[in-house]
Specification:
The structure holds 2 protein chains of 2 kinds. Chain A is an alpha/beta fold. Chain A has helices spanning 48-55, 77-81, 99-110, 114-127, 143-154, 173-188, 200-206, 224-231, 269-277, 290-298; strands spanning 10-19, 22-32, 37-41, 63-68, 84-87, 161-165, 192-197, 209-214, 217-222, 235-240, 253-257, 260-265, 283-287. By secondary structure, chain B is mainly α. Chain B has helices at residues 8-11, 21-38, 40-61, 76-107, 110-115, 121-149, 161-182, 189-202, 215-223, 227-238, 243-271, and strands at residues 70-71, 74-75. Chain B is elongated and about 75 Å long. The interface between A and B is large, with 54 and 41 residues.
Amino acid sequence: MPQPLPQSVVSARGLGKHFGAVKAVDGVDFEIAPNECVGFLGPNGAGKTTLMRMIYSAIEKTAGELSVFGLTPMRDRKRINAHVGVVFQENNLDNELDAAECLLVHGLYCGLDFRTGRRRVAELLEWLALSAKAKSTIRALSGGMVRRLMIARALLNSPKLLILDEPTTGLDPQVRHTIWAAMRELKRQGMTILLTTHYMEEAQQLSDRVLVMDRGRIILSGPPNELIEQHLERYVLQASGLTDLPPIDGEIRHEHAGDADYFYARTEPPLQALYDRLPAQSAVLRHANLEDVFLKFTGRGLHE
Amino acid sequence: MSASPVQPAELCAPVRLRTGLAWSLFGVWYRHVRVYCKTFLANATPAVLEPLFFFTAVALGLGSYMPQARFEGLPYATYVASGVLAGSAMFTAVFETTYGTFVRLAYQHSYDAMLGTHLRTSEMFTGEMLFCASKGAVFSTIVVLVTFCFGVRPTAWCVLVPVVGAVTGYLWAAIGLIVTSYVKMINNFSFFTTGVITPVFFFSGTFFPVRGHYVVLDVISMLVPLTPSIELSRALFKAEFTPMTLLSLVLLLAYTAAFHLLALRRMTMRVLR
């Protein structure tokens, strides 16, 4: 077991959270380096949110070791969370207040004085293109605006560590890309970012490294592209509703799940040749992605 | 967003944070005040009108049948006003930390948002109880002002009414939080409001002297946490301070301290799960 690096932003060893007999997080080890963006990937109930809650001292661990900025969560919650920003999965803004006031109140929680608070609220609203909505009540905002407001709120204290719990779930593509661009900008400014998501694309877009979680454990970790290269052939031909299987040459690996067939190969030509022989609409030839890796390891649907 | 003159470097520059207790409590208190004031009329109307109805119905209505009666040396209207003001502080606080807190807890997830900051749970809920203390101070004072219009004459000591109202509000906010920490469904509060708060309001000497009939009742009456507040309030209206006044003060502060600690403990368990 490697020693926790002193410069780690977050360090976990054998970290667990049990609710009675349920092991929400079941012995995970990881180190987060400064300025890293790490995606925690997994299906609902994998333990991602519980893990994040332990990091920002909203819940006590039941097993293992955890340190954040070299400090101990729960015991040092004030010193840790002064430099943490959290974007929650669900909207917990104060619906009675307008957007600017919501942020100002949160700024006071963070310890800003009124003057600094008002300045930062104005800057963050502008940066996230919400200035025009400063006086709107939360109810009057769209889902994308609410989520941007939640992000603005998490940045009020200029955190060193930003925790995003499913930041773009349920949002339209425009908003998702806007949020991703903002996250990349924050990373360029030196912020360390933890992100939970069940969107593989999101993890691939933003993360230097992904930790794939399933049933409370980390089953896989590494940079997204490396994971794909290590664990899968580069190309996939995905076809559905094939009645009879075409002949396959030795370079192609075949899998069948439900009504779908997957053909994997290291190079494109054999799959292209196969694609040309298949009925036109049923097949897609593409690069293997994180989702393929994820399904390969979690096995649901594909590896019963 | 690229056209924005705001520089990300500026956004990410360190800011000075005041993480001390006083500013943390102020932040939470300020939040509740702002939210409360957004719907001030709807919030404040019952808090002003209900004590007024109790006062007019009982003190003016019923009281008109006994014009010469003195209760503990006070005209009946004054007697009732001094009781109702403490009840008013209790109601405004206990409703805030039962229904209000439950909505923040279970529906609005306001405490989750606070947990993402450096705030301790003790600061979150102390700030909330301080807000209730403010409400207690304001609405008990309003009772004095309104009943003044109906001829109740306060003494100079009544400038201390907001203090009694504030401590009463704080105490009942703590009691409300303790109840809320056990409640799983919002409907369950009706057992508490109807089963506890209503009898406390009517049987702690608000409208008639409870003590002096049965020893058992005397003891029970002194143990009900609203009684000391009413005793103190009445002492201010009588401008007369007895050993009983001192005992009431000690009891009120002791209850407040004990329930404060219990409330923080219970709500911490409820929120950090």
